[in-house]
Write a sequence for this structure.
């Protein structure tokens, strides 16, 4: 209804409301999230699975330096999608909050509490002038009192709790895939399969082990565990998703 | 009377007066409230009812994480509509004010006092530069000296006291429904029925238990109580408002 | 003389002078005052009368929550017109000044002194950047050393002393009515009659008790007293101004 | 030489130089002074006379509340023209400076010293960003070591010393009148006559006692004295300037 | 080469460079200097002469209040041209620097040192945002270790040392006159004659004693001395420059 | 898809998101990097090689003053490309971080830790207002616990780990060259050859010793070592890359 | 490639990147340098030579007050070109740094260290908002541990080390002259001849002694020495560069 000229007005200034009650800077930050490769979280009865697409633009780039899964605390992992440098700021913030909680109360921070401290921090950047919003979405997974929990933080600073979710590129297709295939009864391995299947579904059906990141937070151990390449490769093979690396290289040329 | 070009001028800057004495940023924040799903408050002789529409966009999203009813203090509940992250800021502010009051005066904060501290906080964001207004309306319900009280805070920072009110989407229709059907003599169950009937009236006559939030603050107990899904389902059944969940799922497809 | 384009220039920025020496933001704030319902103040030999139009947009809204008459100190009342949330800020400021005066000098603040502290506060918001002016006018009534005093504060921060005045909607007609009918010899009841007559004159000749606010500050008691609905109804009946509530409701439909 | 478009550029921002070396915001503030009713100062051998036009827009407005002559110290009076709320700020500043001087040096502040402290304060608002200039001119009259002194402060922050001057509306005509009729030998009564004659000269030859403010600072007493209405009326009668109040009222209708 | 549209861009903002490396705000401040009446400084072997044109717009304005020559310290005088209120700020700054030097080092400040502290202060206002440049040029004259010194400060904050110079209106013609007639061997009286001749050369050959300011800083006394009207009149007479005051008055009419 | 007009909007303000989720100021800062001459980093089993193109525009300019390789700590070297003055700021920041780490923990800072402290610093300049991003990319090479590490920091504040990379002019061609010729088994000399070959590949096949900078951080010594001109010349000769200096001079003319 | 309209966008705001990665405000500051008269530095085996063109616009202006060569420390001299007032700020900054170094470490500051502290200071003004860049280039010459050193600081904050360089007007021609005629074996006198020859080459082959500034920092003495007019005249005569002063004066007329 409103023309392009009017919309431009909201692009320039600080984060203010448009006549229809929207915050364009926040919506543009959401676009920054979509520009990032996909990240997936799946909650199972036995724990939480984090899986990410981390394709690297050059064979000389170390896969490990494309940080998309981070340990926030012993019992909490975070996957991100969007503006990488912004993600690092929020991860650091989350880690400091976890440490402060441990120091102050002598026990690990709750996953929900941690998520909400992060979203409150994000919200400030959408209301108070002098800074732009964070161009990143986080998937926060962990164990609260023996219960697996899975949260999302979006650029507006809203926390959501999910059974399974995707953020970043192809979110629409991935979320559809998760909705169709999610099984409340699945164990951790089932969750891993679902996450990898979903990622493969938007990658012509196969994945390369170095282009995937995988981590779990197990209800038993209450420990965040990031998977090595070999273990990822086994999972891909088990799920019949292992791509042909040479083929991929050729197609790059 | 004023053309679109002129109106644009007020969209860009900080919150300033237009030639006809309006604060456009505040009015746009009201549009942000309308973009949120509806929340209803009903005051009865026996206490206050808070009811909210919390339809979730995905079956994988945890209904419980769509926070629209919050406990502000033992005797005060708050329902919100509009920008979710902004609502969280105001709820946190309200909780801190309640705690400070308890610490300072050794007794619970009054519902009216609490509401006005929140609206004064909101007003600051409409007058002093460097920030945008809050894009949220709150319904504050509680018990003051044995009396049920029901307040609204709007984005301008004005407090209103109501017998029954709706904020958010469909406010017009909902408020009409409440005005036509409000009964000063009703008890808490009557208030719950009115609130659910109103919500159903803009949802083709039926509601799903997971898409509704319900809470009361009872004059007897002076305690905020949020209802579980089962209890909501019973109420919907009693009031002949229970929708068919499968049908809803189908219509989504 | 100046075209619309030029005028726009002054709308956008902070409060600065226009080429003809006007402060547009202050003038627009005056428009915000006119958007509010009317408030009236009448000074009589026996005290000051404050009367306000407080029609509520919904029968479910508590009349009492439409705050237009406020107690600033035991001997000072303030009626407001304009942006409600701004009024609350100024009332709070006035109350703090009254308390500070009591603490510092051990006696109640003078009505004139209080008014001027408020107007100095208002002026700051019209000269120093980073905030907008207050969109509200106040009528400050009280007793100074046994003398009734009646002041106005306007959005520029100018104090005026009046025998009788109106602010807000219909100011022009109301002020004309007051000028024609003001009687220097009137007692408090005469002042109340004048104020109600004036309000009725712009409301088709009658008023509903719940749509009127009334308060006095009596020279005898030196106490601010806000009237209950029953007493207002008696006054309306006495002055043959009592409207028909049902009719009003019908006309709403 | 420069078109209207260029001039607009200087209207919007803070106080900066135009290409021809002018400060438009200061010049616009001078227009704000012209929008105020006239004030006159006359220095005689026996003291200083301050006279102001203080016509009130409504008979219900207390003449006394139209403050145009202020006591700054026992021996200093100030008349103002322009933006009333700004004048109050400068008067308050002047009073504080006078008190500080008394406390620090144990003697009254010099009239010239006081004027220059005020003009330095005014200048700051024309050079440093974040605020607009003061839209007011002051006439500062007083006694320095037995000598009558008469100063002007203008919106640029420049101090001038005068034998007789006018500021505000009709400044041109009034200043011409003063130049033609000023008598260096006149006593205080002669000064009062000159000031009233000048004011009458731009008011169809007559004045109403309630529309004039009059004050003197006498060399003998070194005391600022503001005149009551009766005394003003006598002076008007003596000078054959007394207008017909009823006629004035009629002409208003 | 650049059109008017481009130039406007530099008028609006803070002091920034134009594409050709100029600071327009500083150049416009130089225009403000040209708008002021002329001031002249002449250095002779026996001391420094300061002479200023101080024509007053009204016979009722006290000539003495048109401050163009100021005593900065016992041995330093300053003449100014341009924005009067800005000049006062710089003079005050210079006086404080002189006092600080006396307190700190127990001896009078050097004329060159003083000038450079003033120009450093001026420069700050051309580089750091939030304020405009000073619209004034100063001529600083004084005695350093028995040597007469004569400096200029310009709005960019550059110090220059001169044998003789003019600033303000008619600078071009006056500077030409000084260059043609300057005599390195002249004594103080010779310097006074040169300064008055120069001023008269742009005033139809004659000057009125009340329209000229004159001061010297003598190498012998090392004291700043401002001349009274009588003494100025004598000098004008001696130099055959005395104008006819009545004629001047007539020509005003 | 978006026209030039829209893009301009993002050029002017602070660093904000565009509608497609990009940060133009950061992307323009990347252009500033491309404007700088190329820098290359190569990680080998025996250590890290840093090589830079440092052609100087004049034979009178000291080659050594074109700083493109810097020692950050005994075991860490940094090569830069882009805005030279910005690079100096980041190098200084890195050095201070290294010193602080040594003081606080009594051991050298990790290369990865150091890189991430630098990127977090860079990110702040892309999110918080009042400053522009850094227009520089850094290649950070060093030894972590006996392991050679090679990182990049880009203007968005993202850290990447590489086996070999190029930044600055001709990045595309250089990176292609590195990808085709990188040998994981190479020793330090092999790394030097690769880096020099790459640089020569975009310089018509030969290099002059004074136009190349070369440094290594050896796994054995854990020491940063910058090469003198003679040693560079030997390497160029060995690799048959040594250009003819006279010829280069001629082509300049 | 980009039109004039686009370029304007970068002129107005603070120092931000253009789409092609340039900082226009810094480039415009370089234009300010070109507007200044030329300065030259020559490094010889026996020390450093600084020579400047300091033509004065009026014969009444003291040549000595056109400051283009400054003593920064006993062993360091600085020549400047560009905005004079900015140069003074940087010189003062350099002097303070030299003093601080002496106080802190008990020995003179290194020439390179000093230069880099100045360039870091300059860089801040190009990155952090609220100020403009410095419109000046400095030539810093001095002795470091017995070695002559010659540096340049440019408006971006980049330090360069030179054998010989020119900044300011005619930089291109002067730098060409220096490149063609520089002799690495020259002694101080040779350096002086080169510098004066270069200056004369762009002044029709001759120079006037009062229009040239000359200084050396000798390796022997490690002392900055500024030359008097007589000595400059001798050098000009020796080098057959002495112009005819009367002729110059005539050509001015």
């Amino acid at each position: 209804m409103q023309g392009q000229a009017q919309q431009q007005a909201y692009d320039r200034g600080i984060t203010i409301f448009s006549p229809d009650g929207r915050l364009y800077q926040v919506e543009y930050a959401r676009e920054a999230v979509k520009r990032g490769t996909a990240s997936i979280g799946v909650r199972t009865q036995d724990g939480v699975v984090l899986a990410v697409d981390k394709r690297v633009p050059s064979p000389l780039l170390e896969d490990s330096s494309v940080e998309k899964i981070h340990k926030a605390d012993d019992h909490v992992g975070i996957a991100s999608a969007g503006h990488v440098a912004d993600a690092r700021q929020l991860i650091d913030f989350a880690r400091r909050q976890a440490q402060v909680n441990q120091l102050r109360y002598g026990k690990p921070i709750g996953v929900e509490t941690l998520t909400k401290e992060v979203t409150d921090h994000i919200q400030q950047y959408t209301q108070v002038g002098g800074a732009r919003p964070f161009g990143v979405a986080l998937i926060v997974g962990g164990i609260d009192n023996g219960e697996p929990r899975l949260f999302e933080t979006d650029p507006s600073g809203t926390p959501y709790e999910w059974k399974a979710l995707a953020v970043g590129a192809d979110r629409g297709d991935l979320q559809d895939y998760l909705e169709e295939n999610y099984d409340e009864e699945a164990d951790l391995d089932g969750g891993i399969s679902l996450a990898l299947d979903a990622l493969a579904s938007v990658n012509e059906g196969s994945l390369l082990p170095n282009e995937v990141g995988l981590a779990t937070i197990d209800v038993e151990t209450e420990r965040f565990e990031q998977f090595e390449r070999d273990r990822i490769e086994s999972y891909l093979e088990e799920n019949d998703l292992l791509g042909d690396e040479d083929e991929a290289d050729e197609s790059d040329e």
Strands of chain F lie at 39-44, 47-53, 69-73, 76-82, 136-144, 147-153, 159-161, 164-167, 212-218, 224-226. Chains F and C do not touch (no CB pair under 8 Å). The first strand of chain F starts at residue 39 and ends at 44.
